[in-house]
Amino acid sequence: NAGVMQNPRHLVRRRGQEARLRCSPMKGHSHVYWYRQLPEEGLKFMVYLQKENIIDESGMPKERFSAEFPKEGPSILRIQQVVRGDSAAYFCASSSKQFSGNTIYFGEGSWLTVV
Amino acid sequence: KNEVEQSPQNLTAQEGEFITINCSYSVGISALHWLQQHPGGGIVSLFMLSSGKKKHGRLIATINIQEKHSSLHITASHPRDSAVYICAVNTGTASKLTFGTGTRLQVTL
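^ Those are the sequences you sent over. The predicted structure of the assembly is below.
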């Protein structure tokens, strides 16, 4: 009974490169959420997706960041042309329905370091 | 002012002590979550509350909707309880969680 699986756990990228972070939700879950935790800061909502749809991306930076959750395969958070300020822990969570009234299941996080 | 405020920010306790972490919020919510994060580690959901009180082992969580306040209690604390405890709320838009900045707990022998 695997939980929310994220990979890679740690990723190092040079400035200007692309970072791809993957999240496989818990079995049976079709709702995926991405959160970012900047160093010494709290978690911030980025994007909420259901299969093949972006439901709420109000927390996503307007440029360089994109997310998808295809019909098959994991959800992917993609950061193009990374900058030092993108260094953070990125957490994925999933649920079987919308959060309200449902328990959250988080992944172990992906730590991105931009050098 | 943050929508979710936690206190204290840092807490040091001796093993066996009773611990309370507080969370106040300023918005209408549909649910409140208590989460635990170990250094460099993932996030574990401890409780989800919409009213009343829940207990799991040595952990107790309470919420007062009228006062917009929740508390997390740890009885008979142990060094393995050392972690960051985070309060988060579901606001009107169910998809989003708004987080407090966390309370860093250190339990010593």
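The two ends of chain A are 36 Å apart (CA to CA). The mean pLDDT of chain A is 91.

Shout if you want it in another format.
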